[in-house]
Amino acid sequence: MVLFCLCALPWLGARLYLQESGLRHVPKLYNCRALKEIERFKPLTQYIFTDQPIYSFHSGIPVPPRLAILSLKRFWTGEMSNARLVAELEAAQPGLMLLSSDPGERCFQALLNGHYQLVYEDAANRLYALKSIARKAPY
Q1: What is the pLDDT of residues 89-104, one digit of tens each?
Q2: Distances (CA, A) of 45 to 5, 11, 30, 49, 96
Q3: pLDDT digits over 109-128, tens only?
Q4: Phi, psi of 126, deg, nearest 5
Q5: Is the pTM here over 0.85, yes or no?
Q6: Is 50 left (phi over 0), alpha (psi -120 to 50) or beta?
Q7: pLDDT for position 136
Q8: Could you count the other beta carbons within 10 Å of the beta carbon of residue 64?
Q9: Boundaries of every domain in the chain
């Protein structure tokens, strides 16, 4: 029993220390620049489309209902396709699109190029706004 306590207490202490130090290095919401940029456009838009729904929650701007959950199962079953996604985006015309910064081409790239303007970019995110909204946003 004594041997168990001699081994368990240092292990427990090390685990608590590593978990706490890990939590301190997690990005904080209050210094998220992408949310600050979204806040500028909030009065001008009704919807936001994002591949990271937590941003919709924290900004208070809803995702179009039919696009709120884009799971792989919806694509596998044929309930959603790339063509339908593009059609839904064209119909909803979300005022903002927050997408992760990956170098790949998106199925709705033509829609982004034609109707949206890049208004913010960092290492993790790109924020696009409708061209009409991008001109009206306060600085």
Answers
A1: 999 999 999 999 888 8
A2: 59, 51, 22, 11, 7
A3: 999 999 999 999 988 899 99
A4: -130, 130
A5: no
A6: beta
A7: 79
A8: 16
A9: 30-136
Q: Please list the residues that pair with 96 across neighbouring strands.
A: 48, 129
Q: In angstroms, what CA-CA distances link 101 with 18, 34, 94, 106?
A: 30, 12, 19, 11
Which token pair is 115?
A: 């109707």
Q: Tell me if 131 sits within 8 A of 115, measured CB to CB.
A: yes
Please list, in sequence order, all residues whose beta carbon lies within 8 angstroms of the beta carbon of residue 60, skipping any fewer than 6 positions away: 42
What are the DSSP E strand ranges found in 69-110? Answer: 96-100
Q: Which residue has the tokens 């909030």?
A: 42
Residue type, 111: L
Q: Is 114 left (phi over 0), alpha (psi -120 to 50) or beta?
A: alpha
Yes or no: say if 53 and 68 are a contact pair by the CB < 8 Å rule: yes
Length of the chain: 139
With beta carbons less than 8 A apart as the criterion, state whether 60 and 29 touch: no
